[in-house]
Amino acid sequence: MSPHRRSDAERNRRRIIEAGIEVLSADPEANIGEVAEASGVGRTTLYRHFDTRDELVDAILEEMIERSRRQAAATDPDPEDPATAIRGLSRAHLDMALIFGSLIQARNGLSPVVESAKDTDESPTKVFLDRARRAGTIRTDQPREWQQTVMQVVTLTAIDEVRAGEIGKDDAYEMVALTLSAILLPADG
Amino acid sequence: MGAEGAQRRDAVANRQAVIDAATGLLPLDPGAGMQEIADRSGLGRSTVYRHFPTREALFRALLREVIATSGEELEDLLRGQPDLAAGLCDVGDLLVRVGMRYRFLYSHRHEAAPMLNRVGHDPSTPLAEFLAVARGRGEVRSDLPIAWLVCQFIALTIALVGDVITGRVEREGADRLLGDTFIAMTVARA
How far is B175 from chain A (nearest CA, A)? Predict the structure, then answer.
């Protein structure tokens, strides 16, 4: 393939993914034809990039996880100020997860992409937790792995509550921050 | 009505016999098949299939059963418990024990989500009532709803079971860790 054609292919792939994010986060049931239409590339081109709908959704999820990571890192979590860092990180995760949630629904069954994302090393949450533990600004009597799980689970549960209409998005930011600070910060802090 | 009533009672008893057999067998042998569960229940395969046409149907019933028995155990545990921290410690202990015993259900946790969500929002569960009473004494923080706390307890329990299964967190001390997490997020701080 010539470099020119390769960059065309790359551009098409990006357009499909962007369109997919838009279409599927609005309607998790949307079919691949609707994504093709929104992206402006033909169905045949779309199928050249993605064999199945699940493959497309996985590529979209991968992109969202990457963005979520960038968003979280952009909050620049300061290990010396863990309460603010926790607030910023959880807010970034909530924002992304609200879009994510419907995309996860868009996939048939569990996505291996989402399952394996938990254990990667570059997560800004993990980096923050390690630094704050070394600085002694968060508790060190809980395993770091558990603290990471807690940050993820409390946020995901909040998403369910927002989706079910039990709480509003602004309440969720506040409640997640309060809950996580209470669990992770030293009791006398 | 008489004969029909007896038939109905038989059906209920048979159904429960299958559930009991499965909850007895699957923790020891998670791969046990419907035949083995039928053998243990003392019922024929066809009777078992009449109640649970698929393994999935059986697992849904097991999830309900585990949720119901945990509720009963929590009720016994918390009845007359005057101390918030001691109570939450015991709750962490119990939930890790139940979660580990039924860890073969872990891969079915997504199916349990709607059920668990209802439990989390029910103000009349033993745990919600225990927290409400302690809140009356000013011991539970007032800035987070009780349903929020209970939903988070449930989600954290399942997550911890997952972490123990995958080896991220050690089984030893997991009960303390969960109870301690509950206490940290619940207790009103001065």
Answer: 12
